[in-house]
Amino acid sequence: TQLLEQSPQFLSIQEGENLTVYCNSSSVFSSLQWYRQEPGEGPVLLVTVVTGGEVKKLKRLTFQFGDARKDSSLHITAAQPGDTGLYLCAGYSNYQLIWGAGTKLIIKP
Amino acid sequence: KAGVTQTPRYLIKTRGQQVTLSCSPISGHRSVSWYQQTPGQGLQFLFEYFSETQRNKGNFPGRFSGRQFSNSRSEMNVSTLELGDSALYLCASNRRGVSGNEQFFGPGTRLTVL
Fold first, then answer.
1. Which burial class, exposed, middle or buried, applies to A33 when counting CB atoms under 10 A from its CB (0-12, 13-18, 19+)?
2. What is the pLDDT of residues A66-76, one digit of tens each?
3. A27 and B CB contact within 8 Å
4. Which residue ranges in chain A fall short of pLDDT 70?
C-alpha cells in the first residue's frame, strides 16, 4: 500500500514566522501536488511538481520535490493569517492519486 | 467560468436511508472524481467517471455507487446509510494540465447520519 505521510499533523505559529511542512513516502511518484483547504470549502490546487529536485515558488510559498521523487516540502516565509488552512499533498503513481492526511496550519495574528 | 457546484451543501439522514448527491463539473471537463473526507481518514477516493463510464474505483462497499450523464454532471448514491458514512463528500472536476492531471474541487456536501 502506497502511503504519503505528512508532518507535522498540526502547527500553530505567530504571524511573521517561517515554517516548513513535509510530505514523505517510500514510493516514487511521477508528480506531486499541494493543495490548501479552508473550512467549508474543497481543496484548491497550489502547485504541481514533476521533476526530481524541482523547486517552485508561489509568492511566499516555496515547494520542493525530492531528488528521488519520494518526498516534498512546502516552506512558507513570513506566514500570514490568510495562510491558515489544511495543507494536503497528493502524489500520482500508476495513474492513481494518493493523498496525505494533511497538515493543519494556524497562523495567529 | 463557473466553478464546480455540488448540491445539496448539507444533508441530515438517519441510518438505513439512502442519499443522492449531485455534482456539476466545470464546463468542458469530462472527468469527475468523488472523494469522502473525514477527520480520521483524510481524503478517500471513491470513484472517477469519464464520458459516462466509471474509469477507476476506490475501496468502498457496493452501497456507494455513482453515475455520470451525457452533460458530464455526476451523481453519487449511498444506500443503507451507516453512522460511519457521516463525512464531507467532495467532487472534483478533472482536466489534463501541462504538469499532469489537475483537479478542481467543489465545496462539498456535508452528510450527517443520525
1. buried
2. 999 999 999 99
3. no
4. 1-2
